[in-house]
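[[Sequence with C-alpha coordinates]]
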Amino acid sequence: MHPTPLPEDYRSGFIALIGRPNVGKSTLVNQLVGEKVAITSPVAQTTRNRLRAILTTEVAQMVLVDTPGIHKPHHLLGERLVKSARSAIGEVDLVVLLLEGCERPGRGDAFIVNLLLQQSLPVLVALNKWDKVAAEHQAESEEAYSALLEETNWPLHRCSALSGDGCKELTAAMAAQLPLGPQLYPPEMVSDQPERVLLGELIREQVLLHTREEVPHSVAVTIDRVEELPAKGKGGGRTAVLATVLVERKSQKGILIGKGGAMLKTIGQGARLQMQVLIDGPVYLELFVKVVPDWRSKPARLTELGYTGSQ
Protein backbone atom coordinates (compact mmCIF):
# COMPACT_ATOMS: atom_id res chain seq x y z
CA MET A 1 0.00 0.00 0.00
CA HIS A 2 1.54 3.28 -1.12
CA PRO A 3 1.32 6.38 1.09
CA THR A 4 -0.94 9.17 -0.10
CA PRO A 5 1.18 11.63 -2.11
CA LEU A 6 1.60 15.05 -0.54
CA PRO A 7 0.21 18.12 -2.33
CA GLU A 8 2.74 20.24 -4.23
CA ASP A 9 2.22 23.14 -1.83
CA TYR A 10 2.90 21.01 1.28
CA ARG A 11 4.90 22.84 3.94
CA SER A 12 7.21 21.73 6.72
CA GLY A 13 9.64 23.23 9.18
CA PHE A 14 10.70 23.93 12.73
CA ILE A 15 8.84 26.31 15.05
CA ALA A 16 10.31 27.52 18.36
CA LEU A 17 7.93 28.40 21.18
CA ILE A 18 9.60 31.22 23.11
CA GLY A 19 8.51 33.07 26.23
CA ARG A 20 9.01 33.71 29.92
CA PRO A 21 8.75 30.80 32.37
CA ASN A 22 5.24 29.54 33.09
CA VAL A 23 3.45 31.26 30.20
CA GLY A 24 2.05 27.93 28.96
CA LYS A 25 4.48 26.80 26.26
CA SER A 26 4.36 23.12 27.19
CA THR A 27 0.59 23.20 27.66
CA LEU A 28 0.25 24.70 24.18
CA VAL A 29 2.49 22.00 22.68
CA ASN A 30 0.31 19.29 24.23
CA GLN A 31 -2.86 21.02 23.03
CA LEU A 32 -1.62 21.40 19.45
CA VAL A 33 -0.30 17.83 19.16
CA GLY A 34 -3.39 16.38 20.81
CA GLU A 35 -1.62 14.31 23.44
CA LYS A 36 0.81 14.70 26.32
CA VAL A 37 4.39 14.98 25.07
CA ALA A 38 5.65 17.63 27.52
CA ILE A 39 5.29 17.75 31.29
CA THR A 40 3.45 20.68 32.83
CA SER A 41 3.11 22.13 36.33
CA PRO A 42 2.32 25.44 38.05
CA VAL A 43 6.03 25.73 38.91
CA ALA A 44 8.04 28.17 36.80
CA GLN A 45 10.91 26.70 34.74
CA THR A 46 9.26 23.27 34.49
CA THR A 47 10.76 22.75 31.02
CA ARG A 48 14.49 22.04 31.10
CA ASN A 49 15.09 20.04 27.94
CA ARG A 50 14.44 21.35 24.46
CA LEU A 51 11.65 19.06 23.29
CA ARG A 52 10.53 18.52 19.71
CA ALA A 53 6.89 17.62 19.17
CA ILE A 54 5.56 16.84 15.72
CA LEU A 55 2.18 18.08 14.49
CA THR A 56 1.25 16.61 11.10
CA THR A 57 -1.77 17.87 9.15
CA GLU A 58 -3.00 17.57 5.57
CA VAL A 59 -1.21 20.79 4.59
CA ALA A 60 1.93 20.89 6.75
CA GLN A 61 4.19 19.13 9.20
CA MET A 62 5.16 21.42 12.07
CA VAL A 63 8.03 20.47 14.38
CA LEU A 64 7.31 22.37 17.59
CA VAL A 65 10.40 23.12 19.67
CA ASP A 66 9.35 23.61 23.30
CA THR A 67 12.07 25.64 25.02
CA PRO A 68 12.92 26.52 28.63
CA GLY A 69 11.54 29.86 29.76
CA ILE A 70 13.87 32.82 29.25
CA HIS A 71 14.66 34.30 32.67
CA LYS A 72 17.46 35.84 34.72
CA PRO A 73 19.50 32.80 35.81
CA HIS A 74 20.70 32.33 39.39
CA HIS A 75 22.99 29.32 38.86
CA LEU A 76 24.80 27.46 36.09
CA LEU A 77 21.76 25.28 35.34
CA GLY A 78 19.68 28.41 34.74
CA GLU A 79 22.38 29.84 32.48
CA ARG A 80 22.41 26.69 30.37
CA LEU A 81 18.61 26.59 30.14
CA VAL A 82 18.49 30.18 28.88
CA LYS A 83 21.32 29.43 26.45
CA SER A 84 19.35 26.46 25.14
CA ALA A 85 16.25 28.60 24.57
CA ARG A 86 18.18 31.39 22.86
CA SER A 87 20.10 29.02 20.61
CA ALA A 88 16.81 27.50 19.41
CA ILE A 89 15.90 30.83 17.82
CA GLY A 90 18.70 30.47 15.27
CA GLU A 91 17.73 26.92 14.31
CA VAL A 92 14.08 27.29 13.28
CA ASP A 93 11.92 28.62 10.44
CA LEU A 94 9.40 30.43 12.64
CA VAL A 95 9.11 31.70 16.21
CA VAL A 96 5.88 31.73 18.21
CA LEU A 97 6.22 34.22 21.06
CA LEU A 98 3.93 33.30 23.95
CA LEU A 99 2.70 36.12 26.15
CA GLU A 100 0.41 35.86 29.16
CA GLY A 101 -2.75 37.74 28.24
CA CYS A 102 -4.14 37.73 31.77
CA GLU A 103 -1.08 39.60 33.10
CA ARG A 104 0.40 42.95 32.13
CA PRO A 105 3.61 42.77 30.06
CA GLY A 106 6.79 43.11 32.08
CA ARG A 107 10.50 43.66 31.60
CA GLY A 108 11.02 39.98 30.78
CA ASP A 109 8.56 40.22 27.88
CA ALA A 110 10.23 43.40 26.61
CA PHE A 111 13.64 41.70 26.76
CA ILE A 112 12.41 38.79 24.62
CA VAL A 113 10.73 41.12 22.11
CA ASN A 114 13.99 43.05 21.70
CA LEU A 115 15.89 39.78 21.35
CA LEU A 116 13.58 38.64 18.54
CA LEU A 117 13.74 42.01 16.80
CA GLN A 118 17.45 41.36 16.29
CA GLN A 119 16.65 38.24 14.26
CA SER A 120 15.44 37.99 10.67
CA LEU A 121 12.91 35.24 11.39
CA PRO A 122 9.14 35.53 11.02
CA VAL A 123 7.36 35.76 14.38
CA LEU A 124 3.78 35.05 15.42
CA VAL A 125 2.53 36.25 18.80
CA ALA A 126 0.20 34.02 20.83
CA LEU A 127 -1.58 35.90 23.60
CA ASN A 128 -2.22 32.91 25.83
CA LYS A 129 -4.67 32.51 28.75
CA TRP A 130 -7.02 34.95 27.02
CA ASP A 131 -9.97 33.06 28.53
CA LYS A 132 -8.84 34.35 31.94
CA VAL A 133 -9.18 38.00 30.88
CA ALA A 134 -12.55 39.43 31.94
CA ALA A 135 -14.49 41.04 29.10
CA GLU A 136 -14.28 44.49 30.70
CA HIS A 137 -10.47 44.26 30.84
CA GLN A 138 -9.78 42.90 27.34
CA ALA A 139 -9.42 46.31 25.66
CA GLU A 140 -6.99 47.42 28.39
CA SER A 141 -4.94 44.25 27.98
CA GLU A 142 -4.84 44.58 24.19
CA GLU A 143 -3.66 48.18 24.53
CA ALA A 144 -0.83 47.15 26.87
CA TYR A 145 0.40 44.44 24.52
CA SER A 146 0.01 46.67 21.47
CA ALA A 147 2.42 49.09 23.18
CA LEU A 148 4.85 46.25 23.83
CA LEU A 149 4.74 45.20 20.17
CA GLU A 150 4.53 48.65 18.57
CA GLU A 151 7.94 48.31 16.85
CA THR A 152 6.96 45.00 15.26
CA ASN A 153 4.57 43.90 12.54
CA TRP A 154 4.01 40.46 14.07
CA PRO A 155 0.52 38.97 13.74
CA LEU A 156 -1.19 38.49 17.11
CA HIS A 157 -3.46 35.55 17.96
CA ARG A 158 -5.51 35.23 21.14
CA CYS A 159 -5.77 31.70 22.47
CA SER A 160 -6.08 29.42 25.46
CA ALA A 161 -3.62 26.54 25.53
CA LEU A 162 -5.68 24.92 28.28
CA SER A 163 -9.12 24.98 26.63
CA GLY A 164 -7.97 25.01 23.00
CA ASP A 165 -9.80 28.23 22.13
CA GLY A 166 -8.07 29.93 19.20
CA CYS A 167 -5.57 27.08 18.72
CA LYS A 168 -7.05 25.97 15.39
CA GLU A 169 -6.53 29.45 13.96
CA LEU A 170 -3.02 29.61 15.42
CA THR A 171 -2.16 26.26 13.82
CA ALA A 172 -3.30 27.48 10.40
CA ALA A 173 -1.26 30.67 10.78
CA MET A 174 1.86 28.70 11.73
CA ALA A 175 1.51 26.33 8.78
CA ALA A 176 1.16 29.23 6.34
CA GLN A 177 4.48 30.72 7.50
CA LEU A 178 6.56 27.59 6.89
CA PRO A 179 8.56 26.95 3.70
CA LEU A 180 7.48 24.42 1.10
CA GLY A 181 8.91 21.00 1.83
CA PRO A 182 8.30 17.30 2.51
CA GLN A 183 7.47 15.68 5.82
CA LEU A 184 10.55 15.52 8.06
CA TYR A 185 9.25 12.76 10.35
CA PRO A 186 6.88 9.80 9.91
CA PRO A 187 3.31 11.19 10.11
CA GLU A 188 2.41 9.01 13.11
CA MET A 189 5.34 10.33 15.19
CA VAL A 190 4.48 12.95 17.84
CA SER A 191 7.85 13.40 19.64
CA ASP A 192 11.52 12.70 19.05
CA GLN A 193 12.34 12.39 22.75
CA PRO A 194 13.97 9.09 23.78
CA GLU A 195 11.76 6.98 26.02
CA ARG A 196 14.19 7.17 28.95
CA VAL A 197 14.09 10.98 28.87
CA LEU A 198 10.30 10.96 28.88
CA LEU A 199 10.22 8.52 31.80
CA GLY A 200 12.52 10.77 33.81
CA GLU A 201 10.41 13.80 33.04
CA LEU A 202 7.24 12.05 34.24
CA ILE A 203 8.90 11.45 37.61
CA ARG A 204 10.09 15.05 37.82
CA GLU A 205 6.58 16.25 36.97
CA GLN A 206 5.21 14.46 40.04
CA VAL A 207 7.90 16.06 42.21
CA LEU A 208 6.86 19.47 40.86
CA LEU A 209 3.20 18.75 41.59
CA HIS A 210 3.66 17.46 45.15
CA THR A 211 6.49 19.54 46.64
CA ARG A 212 6.93 23.24 47.31
CA GLU A 213 9.49 26.02 47.87
CA GLU A 214 13.05 25.16 46.85
CA VAL A 215 12.57 21.40 46.38
CA PRO A 216 11.13 21.37 42.81
CA HIS A 217 13.99 23.46 41.41
CA SER A 218 16.63 21.37 43.20
CA VAL A 219 15.59 18.04 41.69
CA ALA A 220 16.94 16.08 38.74
CA VAL A 221 16.08 12.52 37.72
CA THR A 222 18.23 9.79 36.23
CA ILE A 223 16.79 6.60 34.76
CA ASP A 224 19.15 3.86 35.88
CA ARG A 225 17.52 0.88 34.21
CA VAL A 226 14.56 -0.05 32.02
CA GLU A 227 13.90 -3.71 31.33
CA GLU A 228 11.13 -6.17 30.60
CA LEU A 229 10.58 -8.47 33.58
CA PRO A 230 9.96 -12.21 33.11
CA ALA A 231 6.40 -13.38 33.64
CA LYS A 232 7.29 -15.00 36.97
CA GLY A 233 8.78 -13.26 39.98
CA LYS A 234 8.53 -9.79 41.54
CA GLY A 235 6.85 -7.39 39.13
CA GLY A 236 6.49 -10.20 36.61
CA GLY A 237 5.26 -9.38 33.11
CA ARG A 238 5.80 -5.66 33.58
CA THR A 239 8.30 -3.08 32.43
CA ALA A 240 10.69 -2.35 35.30
CA VAL A 241 11.93 1.22 35.69
CA LEU A 242 14.61 2.00 38.26
CA ALA A 243 15.26 5.70 38.79
CA THR A 244 17.18 8.02 41.11
CA VAL A 245 15.95 11.44 42.17
CA LEU A 246 18.84 13.83 42.85
CA VAL A 247 18.57 16.63 45.41
CA GLU A 248 21.12 19.10 46.77
CA ARG A 249 20.59 18.82 50.55
CA LYS A 250 19.70 16.19 53.15
CA SER A 251 16.69 18.25 54.21
CA GLN A 252 15.32 18.03 50.66
CA LYS A 253 15.83 14.27 50.70
CA GLY A 254 13.76 14.07 53.87
CA ILE A 255 10.95 16.10 52.29
CA LEU A 256 10.93 13.92 49.17
CA ILE A 257 10.79 10.68 51.12
CA GLY A 258 8.25 12.00 53.63
CA LYS A 259 7.04 10.47 56.87
CA GLY A 260 7.27 6.72 56.57
CA GLY A 261 8.05 7.10 52.86
CA ALA A 262 4.60 8.56 52.15
CA MET A 263 5.72 11.36 49.82
CA LEU A 264 7.98 9.14 47.72
CA LYS A 265 5.13 6.63 47.46
CA THR A 266 2.76 9.35 46.22
CA ILE A 267 5.31 10.56 43.66
CA GLY A 268 5.95 7.01 42.50
CA GLN A 269 2.27 6.15 42.14
CA GLY A 270 1.57 9.24 40.05
CA ALA A 271 4.61 8.68 37.84
CA ARG A 272 3.80 4.99 37.36
CA LEU A 273 0.28 5.76 36.12
CA GLN A 274 1.67 8.23 33.57
CA MET A 275 4.38 5.77 32.50
CA GLN A 276 1.77 3.08 31.86
CA VAL A 277 0.03 5.42 29.43
CA LEU A 278 3.34 6.16 27.70
CA ILE A 279 4.48 2.54 27.50
CA ASP A 280 0.96 1.18 26.97
CA GLY A 281 1.45 -1.56 29.55
CA PRO A 282 1.98 -2.27 33.25
CA VAL A 283 5.02 -0.71 34.95
CA TYR A 284 7.01 -1.69 38.03
CA LEU A 285 8.74 1.47 39.34
CA GLU A 286 11.45 1.74 42.00
CA LEU A 287 12.60 5.18 43.15
CA PHE A 288 15.71 6.12 45.10
CA VAL A 289 16.75 9.54 46.44
CA LYS A 290 20.39 10.68 46.41
CA VAL A 291 22.01 13.86 47.73
CA VAL A 292 24.44 15.53 45.30
CA PRO A 293 25.43 18.87 46.87
CA ASP A 294 25.08 21.91 44.56
CA TRP A 295 24.65 19.80 41.41
CA ARG A 296 23.02 22.77 39.63
CA SER A 297 26.33 24.66 39.74
CA LYS A 298 28.69 21.84 38.71
CA PRO A 299 29.52 21.83 34.97
CA ALA A 300 30.47 18.14 34.78
CA ARG A 301 27.34 17.01 36.61
CA LEU A 302 25.09 19.20 34.45
CA THR A 303 26.65 17.81 31.28
CA GLU A 304 26.21 14.28 32.61
CA LEU A 305 22.52 15.02 33.16
CA GLY A 306 22.17 16.38 29.62
CA TYR A 307 21.97 20.08 30.49
CA THR A 308 24.60 21.34 28.07
CA GLY A 309 22.90 24.54 26.93
CA SER A 310 22.76 23.37 23.31
CA GLN A 311 20.30 20.48 23.48
